[in-house]
Amino acid sequence: MTKSPVVLIDHHPGRSAQTIGIARVLGTDTDLIHQPSVGVVGTKGDSQCYMGVMSKVEAIHASLKRRIGHGAGQLKLRLVQPEYTIATSDGIRNGTREMRYSLIGREVTHDSMCEHLSATGLAGTIAVVACDKPPVGTLAALLEHNEPAIIMSDGSIHPGTDPETGEKLDIVSAYQVAGSPDAELRDRVACHACPGIGSCGGVFTYNTMQTFIGVVGMQPLHMVAPPSDDPRRLKEFPDQLVEYLANMMAKGLKPRDIVVRDSIRNAVIVSLAIGGSTNVTLHAPEIARAAGFTDFWKEVMTPAEFNYLSQYVVPVLTDARPYGKYSMVDIDAVGGVQVIVRELLEAGLLNGDVMTCTGETLAEQVKRLGTKSADGKVIYPVANPYKPTGGLRVLGGNLSPEFSAILKLAGVEGGLENNLFRGKASVFEGEQHLLDALDKTPERFQNHDMVIVRYEGPTGAPGMPEMLDPTSRITTLCRERGIVVALMTDARFSGGSVGLVIGHVGPEAALGGAIALVEDGDEIVADLNSNELNCTPLADPAILAQRKAAWDKVVAANGGIHPNCGDADTRLLHRARLSAVPATRGAGLHPNREVWVRQPREATRSGFVPSNKHRPDANKAF
């Protein structure tokens, strides 16, 4: 007769029954069912970005299982089965209305992860993440749950190779030939751009945010850059992650002990130094909110400081796609992102005293890893950078009074003579109208046009889709014709976008922002000396009032929403329309448009100030 497990009398048998059953199925001790729970989580989607996640989750789960038990050195914990969230493939959906679900996917990941963490009562979590938005949603949920946790990137895809030219390819290469009349070229690039498994390999949004998560302290630095198929991800990293988590649990080290004001600032500075994605200005505020900061742009880093650091202090250190030559696989080959961190630490640009998930400070982790110096080809030293200024700039002016507009300066290929662009507005009421024009009448685009795509913001689209398809086609058009066509939008961009493109312009058109009032032919001025984006006619109060009154009349006649806004024809899109906050607050979904903060924290300053010893004339205290 099989002996039944002992169930302590103070635990309800109904609530214990399935817990005992799960322990038996997983092969763990039934007398550990009332101990604190630990488990692994992962993200799934319908592209090869996610195809390597499950094997890593299973390897980490197996490593956790080996460590759980009553023996010496084992962890007396309850193991739960792995859980997965779902996500949308950005690459497949760009240029379609389904792209509206991309940023919303960050919120869906957050919600489902929050349900799992809280309802399961996880006291320790290891997360394997892929693609762009799920990592941020996962980190936000871990910060709100605030129990020991650690993240590992699944890793990048390898570049493809054009069999005809030998040129290295990636998904951006494929988007850039989308407008080509050469069908054979389009097919060849599509067939070779994305070989194998892993997330986008350039310094697009995925690798911008993986680097951010590593620098902010929630991912071991040496686990960021290796590709998805690197054997270490299955053979070495799982045991290391379990050891790090066990140490965090023993010490009571929690995400909010790691993600503090200075670690977030460090991560933003590194994002500038790698010429990172414009999406960092959407994701950093959401991460900061989950960490307890009510307003990123007031409590963590002001727009003025962001621009000063990018303009005068922090250079671009990487020759990386989309603005350069190399991929994250190449960065890994020369030592990984810890090389970038070392260069910035030694230049006095980062606070090395912040804590990380390894139980070490950032500086201690870099030292233990035996981090190399910059190779000078893929990663450049601060003293002799790839580009002299940082990769991003936020803009004010009458089109962006709250400094929401963002320009990826590292990706600009022309049109900013003396840091100034002056052009003529060419207005499109939504992305599809622009794509139609690029397909059917590309000759209409002229030198120094400022293309405007509106009603694609968080509320208007709804969902704030990214514009990789049109920006890639415009980039190719400009290269072929030797002209400059700029683009600005209340939507956002892929980290793979290059050119003179300005996103997150707000307030967005759906809310009556100034971008809704621009007319064809208006003069648009982007001034990088003053960091302003202005529409010249709207500087006249009479013109501004006249156009706003006409806009209000159209909205009132359409039941309170402008007819150019997209359909909110699912519950999720309807939720986005009613609850999306502005880009400056992260463009997340928050009831009553309030940014909810769990346990607000005081944004105390450490006294550390970035100080570039290679450019002492640029140093300034904030």
Task: Tell me what the structure shows.
By secondary structure, the protein is of the alpha/beta class. The protein has 3 domains: 32-158 and 196-368, no CATH class; 159-195, no CATH class; 392-569, 3-Layer(bba) Sandwich (Glucose Oxidase, domain 1), CATH 3.50.30.80. The chain has helices at residues 13-26, 53-67, 90-93, 101-120, 133-145, 171-176, 183-192, 205-215, 232-235, 237-251, 255-258, 261-273, 280-290, 296-299, 303-313, 328-333, 337-346, 362-368, 431-440, 468-481, 541-557, 571-579; strands at residues 37-44, 78-79, 83-86, 122-129, 149-153, 160-161, 168-169, 392-395, 405-408, 420-428, 449-453, 485-489, 501-503, 523-527, 532-535. The strands form 3 sheets. The chain has an 8-stranded mixed beta sheet with strand order 8-9-13-12-11-10-14-15. Strands 1, 2, 3, 4 and 5 form a 5-stranded parallel beta sheet that branches. Strands 6-7 form a two-stranded antiparallel sheet. Helix 5 (133-145) runs parallel beside helix 13. 56% of the residues are buried. The model is unreliable at 1-9 (pLDDT under 50).
